[in-house]
Amino acid sequence: MSAPLLETQGLQKSFGALQVARAIDFRLEAGARHALIGPNGAGKTTLVNLLTGALAPSGGRVLFDGADVTRLAQAKRVKRGIARTFQINQLFRGLSVFENVCLAVAERLGAGGTMLAAAGRRAEVIAEATRLVELLRLGADAGRRIDELPYGRQRLVEIALALGLEPRLLLLDEPAAGIPSAESHILLEAIAALPRGIAVLIIEHDMDLVFRFAERITVMVSGAIYAEGTPAEIAANRDVRAVYLGGALDA
Amino acid sequence: MSLHEAAREYATRHRVRAWEALPWLAGLAAFFLFPNYLAFGTQVLVTILFALSLDLVLGYAGIVTLGHAAFFGAGAYTAAMLAAHAGWNEPLSGLAAAALVAGAVGFASGWVVLRAQGLALLMLTLCTMALLEQAANMGAAWTGGFDGMPGLAFRPIAGLFEFDVLYFRSQYLYALAVLFAGFVAVRLLVYSPFGRSLTGIRENVLRMHALGAPVRARQVRVYAFSAALAGVAGAVFVQANGYVNLAVLGLERAAGVLIILILGGYGRLYGAFVGALVYMLLEHSLSKAYPTAWQLGLGLTLMLVALYARNGILGLAAALRSRWSGR
Amino acid sequence: MDLASILLGGLASGMVLFVVSVGLSVTMGLMGFVNLAHGGFAMLGGYAVALAMRHWGMPFFAALALAFAAVAALGVLLERTLYARLYRASELDQVLFTIGLALVMIAGVTLAVGPESQSIALPAWLRGQTDLGFLRYRSYSLALIAAGALLMLALWLGFERTRAGAQIRAAVDNRRMAESLGVDVRRLFTLVFALGSGLAAVGGGLGAEILGLDPQYPLRYLAYFLIVVAVGGLGRVSGVFAAALVIGVLDFVLKVEFPKGGAIFIYALAMIILLARPQGLAGKRA
Predict the structure, then answer these.
(1) What's the total number of domains in chain C?
(2) H helices within B140-270, ranges in order?
(3) I need a labelling partner for C74 at 20 to 30 A (CA). Which of A166, B224, C37, C229 fits?
């Protein structure tokens, strides 16, 4: 079996006496469609923070594409191809949708450090930003400030930023949270349309979305991996149903 | 605004608008219209350049600093000491030297200080400036200490234009030219991808990290650039006025330029112009005659601005304009 | 000057710094509000003492009590009407507002009383020297040291032993959690602000002989108050106490040995401490 795109070995994190991640051994293949589920406080977002480098682990390793990135800073990991969205929107609230996306694209294209040429002249940045805005059906709002948009649309911008980085691994932290169900299909289509080359890990509570999207599911409880398998296996797993899924699948 | 319009707006934002020639035309007109006030005019121009440098750091990168006079002073003392001790009083190369020294001080202090945030950062900027002030005081043999160095003379600019001690004619045009050059550099920077990324750092630093931007490196770079520019302003101050003293490194100057920038409107490129002009005109006419009333009025104005008009004069103007045009 | 004299002189200075700055530290630690006008409350307190003694013939300690009450009341008024509006504002706005307020206080005092510096006539038993056995030293300075130590003790007891103290400590550590536990943080802040301003007023009056008393007071010592607070750690009384004493002694020594530019060591020390521990000596890591 070829080496996985992402792998953690014995990853753990404690805050003093509180252990929020215990000995996590996690693998993700290239092009994966993987979901991470579990009750609140299970440590899902913590794991994402550990993977992106926003949080430094207390022990264990993170390997990306075969290389040990455990000590690597967040920004460097982004350059290697790891991108994430946040559970609560982290956008540039005073700027327009278009400017937000341009910032992400400019960083990816390495233009962010150019000091003396006008940003407006970077046609490739503008073209790519236009494409992403259209992809997420944000065209009508492109010129509006983030803080003027309803929360659901802001959430889509959050996704656009991550896509703008053209990652090889995309970590989506509850992307559907806050999006009214009338609009969530845009999100689903965008996620479904992601190129096969990108591995996607999605944290979600919306079981509809999870079971439609995921090819593998990992269940986390109390900072540790509780179960892992295909959607069918997880749905059939009695312990998982008891601990978390409850009646969600008895529809 | 449709997507197409938004993209077009982004692509053409940097284009020079016709009205942007106005400040320079006005500056030139003032030269002919107010020949007896050119000394005052020169001070205004120097302050605009200084405030412009602060705007890069405060308005665009979002770094709150009470110590920007450290760089103004570094540039000032460089030009002064070169002239007084090394006999190097050619003004243009003096400017270059001042920019280099102040930029180096900016780079070093920024690299050290910008790892902090909030109150710690504010205090570190304040302490850096105070440190330099104390050093200048201690090294009185070099810097003239508390009394400073009066009576500095400089060679004619580009060998042609003598410094006019009485009417400040060449000083004014010199300052105007330097300001123009500095403004062009700042404007280019602000509309560059680097400048845009600074806005991102100001708006949401967490997100910038998550976009892979080398945040601290960018911050240090703009801090150093801004310091060099402030140093140039300080050098022009010394060359035009012919003296230097500890006040160039003092809290009064640092707080003063901060107030000026906020009054004019930070993050708006021209806030420095508006703020410096308005503030210094008012100060010139009021503070000598009624110093206490001036202080009281200034204090009340600052309180009101903080509560109701945090974006300064230009911000108020923009709000009025959008209210007037309907939406 | 011998070591003991220098130490005592420095401790006295430090105690004044402590009394004035402790209120600022707790206020900033509790509400995260940068209050550059804090020195103004100290100044107003000093002026209140001077004027009450001169015009109403009040004795020294009664005047101090009056100053405390009057400035605390002013603090409540300002906090409720003005400061409260800026709690959610940016650091820059808070800096701007409080600089403005400081200027208003300076101008107000100049208009009401005049630009000259004021002196406070100490009671007879504080003038002159006290014999400690191994040393004779200025009674006033010794009294300052005693007062500062007493205040530290009183504050420590207040924070450790009273319910309000516990609530304040909890809110400084984690405001949101304290709120969710039912602590009325708004009222707490008014209380702390009043107390802090009142203490600053007392510090202004007590320390008038050392720090002087004139309209420029708030801005002249602003940097020192801020350094003491930042180095000590926001909301940490023990930290402010330690930082104030260290800086007081250091400043005193430097004024004697390096009058020109000696303060450079204080700024350098402050920078080193803030870079190594941005949260201050006693502060909690964010």
Answers:
(1) 1
(2) 140-143, 169-191, 193-203, 205-210, 215-241, 251-264
(3) C229
